[in-house]
Amino acid sequence: MQPTDSDKNGSTNAGQKPGLAKAPLLTPAPSVIEAGPSVPTRRPSLAPPDASRTLDMADEIAGRFPSAKIDYVRPRRIKVTVPADKIKVVALYIRDALGFDHLNVVGGTDYMQQGEFEVIYFVGSVSTPGQQDLVIQLAERVKRDDSPKVPSLTEVWGGAEYHERETFEMLGIVFEGHPDLRRLLLPEDWNDIPPLRKDYISPGR
Amino acid sequence: MSTAFEYSPDADRIMSVSLGPQHPGAGHFRIRLWLDGDIVVRADPDPGYVHRGEEKMSEYRNYIQNVPHLERPVILDSSGILFAYSLAVDQLMNSKIPPRAEYLRVIMAELNRIISHEYYLGILGLFVGQTTMITWMMGDRDLFIDLGARIAGARVTFAYIIPGGVRNDMPKGLEVQAFETLDWFDKRMDEYEKMFFRNPLWEERSRGVGVLTREDAIRLGTTGTVLRASGVAHDIRKAEPYSVYPEFDFAVASLKEGDTWSRAYVALEEMRESVKILRQAFKNIPPGPVRLKLGPQPRVPAGEVYARTEAAHGEMSYFIVSDGSPKPYRLKLGVPSFKNLPAIRHLLKGLHIADIPPVYWGLNYWPVEADH
To answer: Which label site among A84, A100, A106, B120 has the fewest CB atoms less than 10 Å from its CB?
Structure first.
């Protein structure tokens, strides 16, 4: 039981019809992943959560944006990868139509062997009833070259500002349209490549 | 960091001042202020003075070695930050945690929530001039640290919640001490309310100060007491129940005003709810094993996971990418204080200098956590 084997089982092609996408979207045993503890079920809320909501939502996104690739769907998580030039439109749709109003965190990963960076926005919803437990992971891939650039989503979720500054500093990804893209956490005299890139080796390692 | 502001025609009127990082009223943290008289016209929080590169460090250590250093950013709430980490690793490994371990995790997390909130209220009181508050809170906090120390064997940095369960069982007969402490603390919290929250001096310094509206609280991505004091009853323990929280009867404290007083009062109410949870947990804790045998270097299947919990400061989240090796490929820490950074800048603007301490400390901001 691979909990997160997204590439083999969970991905769907962009052009698929929403209805057809339903079956292969679900990873084999996702209910176990999100179900939490294995204590005997004393209350119904401890039962494994239902994946139908996220499946419908993933269908909606995939149907509306053919370029979006649904990486995996779990009962409480959806991961969508979109091209960098489309991310703002998708983000606005996720915020306004689906009601995901609260940015949790922005992460970035250096996939050095694939020659790509991944920027990923974790968006939850705090005021839309019934979906407060869901998180949409909106990801984009950008080529790992000298000046990786992606559009900033600070206009969509105001909370993204400091998260994007951190990602800019730690991975060297430039967020275009960011109101105040400066370094944040590292010392002012930092004179090396961004530290969370995989080719940066910590001193003494 | 030069800005056009300093060279503007108003430069003789607008003064730029650093609050921190050495100032005792800021913690290891600097806020750059632009002042017109004693009014803040612009504030620029500048974290990073205690940045230790936790995320990079995690990539060099295996999943068990990561436990003790990951709790360092929030020694106030060391279980809160490890709970989310253990949850993430458990989900990656698809492990089923024994029920007793889940109860012990909840007990430790709630003890730590009280410890952290006591510290928060104490420091907040100190900087508003309620010195009694810090002496009371620090003293009372120690009772809960003692309870935690009897369970975990260490003070403050418990390193108790680990992937696969908890480190060890609690000693026999601990319930007696726990119930004594909780009974006493229930009455003590009523005294807090009379002594501090209904104190005219404290109310004058905190009521209506630093008001964050509901819309702004959501837009800026705030979490924890800040979000709940602004009228959003969002608590991950209820919104996305994890561990055995669905088995407990407790409420989510939330107020509508969004000022400093409400933020502090939400923390007090949360301590009351934590006491409720602790009573039920100590009463109903099932027998059984407390950890899975994972070995010193557990094999974690490849995949990625995003797990979040409600820590004392707010929503604590981990994004872990595993490539199947013994060490995480990428570990992204989403810490609540960092999420509240935009609120600092937003709230300080337009304040008098004298209102900075109640607003800044009222946000439950912990610089070390934000810098991770």
So the answer is: A84
